[in-house]
Amino acid sequence: MAFTSAALQTIFASPALASRTRTTSYSFPRIASVPRLSRNAVRCMASGDEKTEQSSEPTVVPPTTSQIPTTPTPPKPQAPKASTKFGDVLAFSGPAPERINGRLAMVGFVAALAVELSRGQGVFTQISEGGSTWFVATSVLFTLASLIPLFKGVTVESKSKGLMTSDAEMWNGRFAMLGLVALAFTEYVKGAPFV
């Protein structure tokens, strides 16, 4: 700080600067050597005396990381536990009905297309020739497999990660329901298998 101040005094007091800028030049006493001052000392440059005064402001020492108080992080709010009551799980807006119907529609749509491609039978022919037994057995199996975790309080959202999310399953089920209805309607109107 003192060195910078002395250098600025030397620059402003030079006659070359005064003649170029055409301003009134103030003459400052030239200092041959600048005494080394401590960090907390302030030198009075206006009067030219060399006494040092202590700064009236307290010295601020930055705290170390061990001295900084840490605020505790609040605990994460826990999601409310899903209801395991029979009426809540199977309610119209509950977690089970649309999900189970979507899963059954996905299996039914793929199975209907696979049988149609392999045997050349339409959906209505498949149902009338023993397909209803397979439909009931698959429906019972998938319904129980879907309901058991829900009655234990496990939500589908808690198990969905990455690409296979609960929303993706829901949308795939909706598209499969539409596809199965469209397949049956097309075969009914056409009077023949779709493929």
Per-chain topology:
Layout: H1 2-13, H2 15-21, E1 41-43, E2 52-54, H3 86-89, H4 97-119, H5 123-151, H6 166-190
Antiparallel strand pairs: 1-2
Helix pairs in contact: 4-5, 4-6
Q: Overall mean pLDDT score? A: 75
Structural class: mainly alpha
Share in helix:
40-55%
Strand order of the largest sheet: 1-2
Question: Over all CA atoms, what is the radius of gyration?
Answer: 43 Å
The overall strand count is 2
Major sheet summary line: 2 strands, antiparallel
How many helical elements?
A: 6
What is the N-to-C succession of helices and strands?
A: HHEEHHHH
The tally of domains stands at: 2
Please tell me what the overall shape is. Answer: elongated
The end-to-end span amounts to 90 Å
Spans with pLDDT under 50 lasting ≥5 residues? none
Proportion in β-strands? under 5%
Biased composition (Low complexity): 58-70
Subcellular location: Membrane
Region (Disordered): 45-83
Membrane topology: Multi-pass membrane protein
